[in-house]
Design brief:
The protein is α+β, with helices and mostly antiparallel strands. It has helices spanning about 20-25, 30-40, 50-55, 80-90, 150-160, 170-200, 200-224; strands at about 5, 10-15, 40-50, 65-70, 95-100, 105-115, 125-130, 135, 140-145. The chain is built from 7 helices and 9 strands.
Length: about 220
């Protein structure tokens, strides 16, 4: 299913965000500023999904959802650029990244699960970034999914990006935690496989292979 949504007309914002404003609010260092200059052409605040624009109630942790469009100068956009923007804006953000121009342009949707810290609600914490595939920018957009409030809407928007099937009754928080566990377990599997390939001693190979099988079983269970 497409992660590109047809957002309501009344939620259009259409304001260009100057890079220097991002720097001011995020405390960007020279390395980050260089990344913005090299990789980002323009940032447009395209939509403001708020109670007054889409008639959905705010939820704790999701008072509004912003949609930012970024036109890239380069085929790749370093995720630190997105982390910098997320650090400057105290709302959940859905990014629509575009590379290329005209008929060749392609768009990718990227977002992190962003929520206030349980220890200190004034601090926002972010998960790893989740992303869709690249699709032609001219592709049709999916209708915005129905939701009772901003929390439900955010859950549905982000669930489209997480590369796992949602289990019955699984919350967004638990889905993201499971996805991060899959990533971590995948690294353990790769590390054990590399160790097995290098090992020459038969007894050690047997031990490592047993560990590898166990890790693969755990990974399969998490991914299912």
């Amino acid at each position: 299913m497409s992660a590109l949504f047809a957002y309501p007309k009344q939620a259009e914002f259409g304001r260009v965000l100057p890079k220097n404003k991002i720097y001011e609010h995020s405390g960007a260092n020279s390395r980050l500023k260089d990344l913005f200059v090299e990789q980002v052409d323009q940032i447009v605040w395209r939509y403001k999904l708020a109670p007054e624009t889409i008639n959905l109630a705010a939820k704790p942790g999701v008072p509004e959802i912003q949609v930012f469009a970024i036109q890239q100068k380069t085929p790749e956009l370093h995720r630190d650029v997105l982390r910098c923007i997320d650090g400057a804006v105290q709302f959940p953000i859905i990014f629509e990244l575009t590379q290329g121009q005209g008929a060749e342009a392609q768009t990718q949707v990227v977002a992190t699960y962003k929520r206030p810290s349980e220890a200190d609600p004034a601090i926002w914490v972010c998960s790893e970034y989740f992303e869709s595939g690249w699709t032609p920018t001219t592709s049709g957009r999916a209708p915005l999914t129905l939701a009772l409030d901003h929390g439900g809407l955010y859950e549905q928007l982000l669930s489209r990006l997480v590369p796992l099937t949602v289990r019955p009754g699984e919350s967004l928080h638990d889905l993201v935690a499971r996805s991060e566990a899959v990533t971590s377990k995948g690294r353990e599997v790769a590390k054990a496989a590399a160790l097995l390939a290098k090992e020459k001693q038969f007894n050690r190979k047997v031990e490592i292979n047993a560990t590898l099988r166990q890790l693969k079983t755990q990974l399969e269970h998490l991914s299912r």
